[in-house]
Amino acid sequence: MKKQTYASVWDAIEDAPEAAASMRVRADLMIAVQRHVAASGETQSRAAKRLGITQPRLNDLLRGRIDKFSLDALVNMLARAGRQVTVKVNKAA
Predict the structure, then answer these.
(1) Rounded to two decimals, what is the model's pTM?
(2) Distance between CA atoms of 67 and 61, rounded to whole angstroms?
């Protein structure tokens, strides 16, 4: 059996490179929201209200349910949190 190596876990899980790229970006944005909520010291209910979502939806985010969040939704949450999202595009390896 030949051992395969991948650049990221998303490359191993997803069938298409574009799907892996989307998952990588969504994961990075989710981590940014999670860190912001943790640093705020707010309750989930208060943090959710400030982010413009419900507490159960925030709970999904904090539990890493990546399939429930689009890039747009995550960018909007970060903007409501006073965070600026920037994009950097690099040539593929």
Answers:
(1) 0.83
(2) 10
